[in-house]
Amino acid sequence: MGETQTVLCMNGGSSSVKFHLYEMGVTEKGQSEQLLARGAVEGIGQSKGRVRFVDGQGASLVDRLLDEVSYETAVAEVVTILSGGDLPSIEAIGHRVVHGGPNHRSPRLVTPDVMDDLREHAAWAPLHMPGTIRLIEALGSELPGIAQVACFDTGFHGRMPEVASQLPLPRKFFEQGIRRYGFHGLSYEYVLSALGDEAGGRLIIAHLGNGASMVACFDGSPIDTTMGMTPLGGFMMGTRSGDLDPGVLLYLLREWGYDADTLERLLDRESGLRGVSGETANMARLLELRAAGNPHAAMAVEMFCYQARKTMGALAATLGGVDQLVFTAGIGENAPLVRALICRGLGHLGIELDPAKNRENAWVISTEQGPCRVLVVRTNEDLMIARHTYTLVFGGGAAA
To answer: Catalytic residue positions?
Structure first.
């Protein structure tokens, strides 16, 4: 007979909470990583919210509007839904925690000391960390005695060499933890696990979604990444600016009367694709507007692809070339035109796409004769959280 445990994965954003319920362990048929249910609570902090819940096959079970929603009421909704059906009881909870700060490079059981540390470094990812902390606290109240695990998006990059992680500031800042951390680590971990034995050599992974970053890996170890101390760094994203001349910020502070809150709103919510297009941060919609002749939408798409292409070239330089390029996340997995525009200027790196395979979102989208293999890999951060939680709480080494 086998033995399985039920793991709830929580992924909290600035205005929503996504949840996945997995059965992890060993069954009579072998290793199990079965998705039992998933859903989301949307509209946190807004006048109206919505809860959606589907089973493991995608059949809708709950879809209704909510009155004013908080992280605490979202947790109550999730617990009520999951305990009200034929699903097994929750035995452990894993959280995506965006920033681990200087002290956490691997998943950790949530303890009072860990919570104190998360609160201390909440300002390093202000859009994400306060909500995650409230989720952990609320679940501790709703499900006392159930182990919770913090899975850090920064942890994957903890092995980067110091030459890539130190900022060009006085040494004292580095010693206080002010450095480049990198993000989307759970996604990168999953992609490497999906590649398995094929993850060796010089590899660039492009996580292209509303938040976007890239990592350069050699034989599965991170060498460099695009984001910095916060998820604002790197190339342009859906609503985030990415890297800017620091003098622009000083100018806005001195001449435009901006303060920290105004700058944060500008850089986090009003820039990137949304800012340049003046329309939307949604890439699919921008491609429609571009096709209809909207020049600002066209410029937003062109800038995104140009910056991504330039970034790939820089990461290839850190590796001394590139053997494989992987596209993942919402844009990376589903936007053939964006992939084609990015790769259009990378022939010198041996990157050549097969147009038909690219349109089909195939696993391998490069030509057979091209020296660099280009792939599309569907990421699964929540399954990675489930694996870490299962391993840490139940010693499930096989699932990891």
So the answer is: 153
